[in-house]
Each structure stands twice: as structure tokens, then as C-alpha cells.
Amino acid sequence: MLRKTLLTMLSALLVASLLLSGCGGSGRTRIVARVGSTSISESELRAKLAELPPFTQQQFAGPEGLIKFLHRVIEEEVLYQAAERAGYDHDPAVVKTVEAVQRRAMIQAYYKTEIEGAVTVPEEKVVAYYDEHSEQFIRLGQIKFRHILANTEAGARTARNRIIGGEDFASVARELSKDQGSRDAGGLVAPRKQGDSLPSAGMSGAFIASLFEGTVGQISEPLRSDRGWHIVRIEELSQESVKPLDEVRGRIVDSLMPGEAREYYLEVLEELKEQLKATVNEDAFRRQPRSEEELFTLAQDTEDPYRRLGYYSELVLQFPDGEHAAEAQFMIGFIQAEEIGDFDAAGKALQRMLDEYPESELRESAEWMLENMGTEAPLFEDSDLISSE
Asked: Which of 28, 201, 245, 315 could be cross-linked to 328 through a Cys-Cys bond (beta carbons 3.0 to 4.6 Å apart)?
């Protein structure tokens, strides 16, 4: 009950401090809330609000919105002071997070000021980009015209003759035009760009495109559309053109700036590495080559046939002329045949042993295996095949 009463009193005080200009100071420097020894001024409150995205700011518009936002600020400050009082400012996880945020903020500030802030796009690159990408800067032609729509060619020609005879185009349009959309405006149509159409008046894109061939002030001959016959007077006309460089310079600079900043960044990075004596031990992440004896021992001590096959294969690959190469090649065939059951692979491995190591003491064993491969009983024991050291 006491808590509810205190909250009610606090809300009343907040409303009063925001709406009454004479309380707690003058102008936006007046204090609108206190949490412990921390005071919150109206200017601070509005500064915090300005930091929010525009869409979010709209949720706190007006006096009631500011009061709502103030309660949120108070809630944050209350929780912050409670966490501080509980010692969380010394909590290892919090300290680590703060350090990480600070680290990122410092790097971002450094990059923005020392890299992006130090880069300008050379004028020659701006000009070159403009010349090479002129299609990006096309300004479409635009036309503004009046027209009169008639049901027949004769009706359109009658209207034209009256205008040629000195009558006002707009007046004739209000009297004769069948186009409800433009008649009351004296036949005036909203400006159209090249490629636009005007379905309400029966004008296709091709119809309007043909008007760009005319001249300002010209009264056209009757022109046919899907809805009837038109006479047109062009009020304003601009043909398709390339926007001038000065008009698009900022856009080009914005496009080129990331590349320029990246290029400068790489230069600065190398300089900083040299200044700070940065070194890298890449070999720490690369597997060191194993000796022949190490591979042979690993193969003998490993029970899994696939791993043994891998060690023997690596030995033959790395040390094809080594002391144990012939035995390793023989064992590749033996494991494939007797433990894995892949006789095709075993045959190829044994034949390779015969071809590459014809003088080996295991030659007869390899030949015997090739002739008898696939029999049910095991042909040899490992201890019989591998010579002891």
C-alpha cells in the first residue's frame, strides 16, 4: 500500500514538473525526477529521447508521451543503481562485457575518424565513374500537355479548327472533351515521363512517347487512341538527358568512398603492424609432417583398419622410397582384402606393390594373395607379414 501511494505521489510530481513552468527551475533545465542522488533534467530527458529512432520517438510525443518516457528512464536508473549497489560493476562477466563493448566502440571510432575521415575521393575518379556509368544518371524526358478527346476524327478536327481560329484551348476542352479526368482542368494532364501511359484517357506508352516528337505550343493533328481521337498542345517539354556531374557528384562520392576507405585502411593496417611489431605463427595451426618411423609405428599400434590404412597410405605417399614403403604398400592391400573386404581395391594395391617394389621380400606373399584373394580362411597374420625390427 505504501509503495502504491509513493508511486502515485511520484507520478503527480512528475506531471507537475513537466507541465508547470515554474517548478524545479526554469525552462528545460528544470529537474523532472530524482533517483537517489541522481537528478534528471528535462533537457537530459529530451536528449535521451532524441537518441531513439524517429519511429520510436513518435510513441512519446506530447506531454503524456514525455511522462511515459520519463518513467522508463527512471526504471532504467533504478535498476542501474540497484545493480551497482549489489556490486555488479565488479562482476567478472559484466566487466568482460563492458570491456568488449568499449573495445568495439574504440575500434569503430578510430576507423570512422582516422580512416574514413582521412579519405577523399580523387576528382579524376569521380569524373571517370561519371563517364563510364552515364546510364545510371539518365534524366527521363518529361512532358506536360493539354488534350481534347473526341469520339470521331471529325469532332477532333472541329475542336482543332476552333483553337487555330483563335479560341482558348482550355475553354474548348471544357466544352467538347470527352475525357472526364482532364476536361474540368481545361484538358490539362499531370506531367508524364517517357514510358508512362495514361489509361484513363486511352493513351498508351507508345502514344505518349510519340508526343515527345512535338514542340511546345504546337497544336497536333487529330491523333487516334483506344478511346477516340485527340488533339494535343504541348505546354512543357524536356527530352531525355544525362544529369550534370555536379548534380550527381555526392552520389558518386558515396559510391566510391567505401572502396577508397578500404584501400587506405589496408595501407594504414600494414604501417600499424610494423609499428607495433605484430607477428604471426601460422605453423602453430598447421600439422607438422610426421616421419616415416612415426607413421609406421602408428600403423602397427592402431587397431582400427581404416586408421591403419590411412597411416600406411600417408607413409607410401610421403616416403615412396623409404625403408618401410614396400611393407606399407603390401599392408594396404592386405587390409583392403582381409579386414575391409574391398577386393578390387586390394588387388590394385597389391599389384602396385609388385610393380613398384619388385625386389621386396614380400613379393611372393603379394602374388599368393592375388591368386587366392577371397578365400574364407585368413591368409596371414600381421606378425607373419611384417618383418620385426
From this structure: 315
Count, in order, helices (H) and strands (E) of the chain.
17, 8
CA dist 156 and 177 (Å) reads 9
Question: Mind listing the pLDDT tens digit of every residue in the chain (389 residues)?
Answer: 433 433 343 444 444 444 333 344 445 679 999 999 999 999 999 999 999 999 999 999 999 999 999 999 999 999 999 999 999 999 999 999 999 999 999 999 999 999 999 999 999 999 999 999 988 898 889 999 999 999 999 999 999 999 999 999 999 999 999 999 999 999 999 999 988 999 988 899 999 999 999 999 999 999 999 899 999 999 999 998 999 999 999 999 999 999 999 999 999 999 999 999 998 888 777 777 899 999 999 999 999 999 999 999 999 999 999 999 999 999 999 999 999 999 999 999 999 999 999 999 999 999 999 998 866 544 444 444 444 44
- Enumerate the β-bridge partners of residue 149: 230
Q: Which is nearest to 347 in space by CA: 384, 320, 373?
A: 373
Q: Is the dihedral of CA 83, 86, 89, 91 positive or negative?
A: negative
Q: Where are the beta strands (DSSP E) in the chain?
A: 31-35, 38-41, 138-139, 142-150, 192-193, 223-225, 228-238, 241-242
In the chain, where are the structural domains located? 2-90, 141-239, 292-385
Q: Per CATH, which fold does 141-239 belong to?
A: Chitinase A; domain 3 (3.10.50)
Topology of the domain comprising 292-385 = 1.25.40
